[in-house]
Amino acid sequence: MRTARVTVDELARIAPAQLEGAVLLAPLKLPSGALAKGVRFDAATATRVVAAAKAGDLARPARLAWPDPDDVHEDEAARRLALAVAGGGVEPRAPRQSRLDLAASRDGVLHVRTESLRRINAIDPLEVFTLFDGQAVPGGQVVCSVKVAPHLVPAAAVAAGVRIAREEGPVVEVWPYRAHEVAAIAVEAMSPEALARFEAGARSKLDALGSRFGGTTVVPDDDPEPAAAAIGAALDEVVGRRGLAVVLVGGVSAGDPLSPFWMALEARGGAVVRRGVPAHPGSMIWLARLGRTQLLGLPSCGMFSLATAADLVLPRLLTGEELTAERLADLGHGGVLTRDMRFRFPAYARDLGAPEG
C-alpha cells in the first residue's frame, strides 16, 4: 500500500486518472458534499476533487492510499468475512460505516462458536463481535457485527479468517424454536390455587416460545414408595406413551438424593445430566435425560413463574438442542443474572419477579 498527503496545489495540477483507485483516509469537504473516509475514488469522484482544488474550494490536503494488488478494501473484507461467519438463521444487513451487521432472521437461540471467534479475532486487524452464546433473540435483532480497522487490508489476513470460519463450522447461527408439547410433573402437594398459578406461569412461557403446555401430573411425596410408583407411571406416560421431548418437573431438589423422583428415574434407565448450574438466581435447577426426553427441574413448582436460570435453559431445549453438562457449565460466564442481565432472557422473563435470597 502506497500512501500520500496530496496538497491542494498538487491536486489542482494532477490528472484525475492518477487518483482513480485511491482510498480516502480522512474525510474531505467538497462544495457538493463531504466525502467520507474509506471512499474509493472512481473517475467521477477523482474529477470532482480535482475540479474543487482548481476552483479553490478545498481547505485541506487529501490523505490517500493506493492499494497493492493483494490489498482488499474494508467493505469487501467485511463482506467476505461476514459470509463465512454466518450460519443458519442469520442474514446480513447493508454495510454501515465499514461495518457489516448480521441479524437474526427468526426467533430463536443464538449459538456462537466462541473458540473459533477468538481465533478469528486474534488475526490483526479482523473484528467479529457478537451477543452472548445461548442468548434468546427475536427475529431482526443484530447478533453479530463484522469489520476491519484499516481501510485497506492484506487479502491473506481476510483469507485466514474465512478459512477458520469455514473449516470449523458456522461461527454464528440462530436455532429456531420448535413447536413442542411440554407436560409437567409436580412432586409436591399443591392446592388448586397453587396448581393454577404454576400452570399459568408455565403456559405463558411455552406459548411465548411457540410450544404448547400439555398439563400437569401432581404426585404428593409424603410416602416415598407410593410416590415413586406414581412418578414412574407419570414418566411412562409422558416419555413412553406420549414421547414428549421436554418435560418440566417441580418440587424435586437437586440436593436431595432421597426424593422418590430420583428412584423412579433411575429405575427406568434415566440419568442426571447436571445437578445445579453455575448461574443465579436459579442455581438449584437441574437437568436429566430419560431416553430422548430432557427433563428440566426446579425445587418448587412456584419457581416456574419467576425469572431464573431456567429461562436460559428452557429456550434452548425448545430448539431441540441436547444439552450436555459441558454446555451447561458455560452458563457460568455471565451467570450473575441480576436485572441488568435480563437482556439474555426471552422477552417474557424480563419483567418477572425473581426468587428471594
What strand line-up does the widest sheet have?
A: 14-13-15-18-17-16
> How are helices and strands ordered from N to C?
EHEHEEHEEEHEEEEHEEHEHEHEEEHH
Radius of gyration: 29 Å
Largest sheet: 6 strands, mixed
Strand content: 15-25%
Query: Helicity level, as a percent range?
Result: 25-40%
Task: Indicate the low-confidence ranges by residue numbers.
Answer: none
Identify the overall geometry.
Answer: elongated
Our measurement of the CA-to-CA distance between the termini, rounded to an integer number of angstroms, reads 60 Å
Which whole number gives the mean pLDDT?
95
What is the number of E strands? 18
Give the class from helix and strand content and strand pairing: alpha+beta
Number of helices: 10
What does this molecule look like?
The chain is of the alpha+beta class. It is built from 10 helices and 18 strands. The protein has helices at residues 8-13, 43-54, 74-85, 114-121, 155-167, 192-208, 224-241, 260-267, 310-317, 325-329; strands at 2-6, 23-24, 62-66, 71-73, 90-92, 100-104, 108-112, 126-130, 136-137, 142-148, 152-154, 172-176, 181-186, 212-218, 246-250, 271-275, 286-290, 293-298. A 6-stranded mixed beta sheet has the order 14-13-15-18-17-16, sandwiched between helices. It has a 4-stranded antiparallel beta sheet with strand order 5-6-10-8. Strands 1-3-2 form a 3-stranded antiparallel beta sheet. It is elongated and about 95 Å long. It starts with a strand and ends in a 28-residue tail after the last helix. The relative contact order is 0.10. The model has no long low-confidence stretch (mean pLDDT 95).
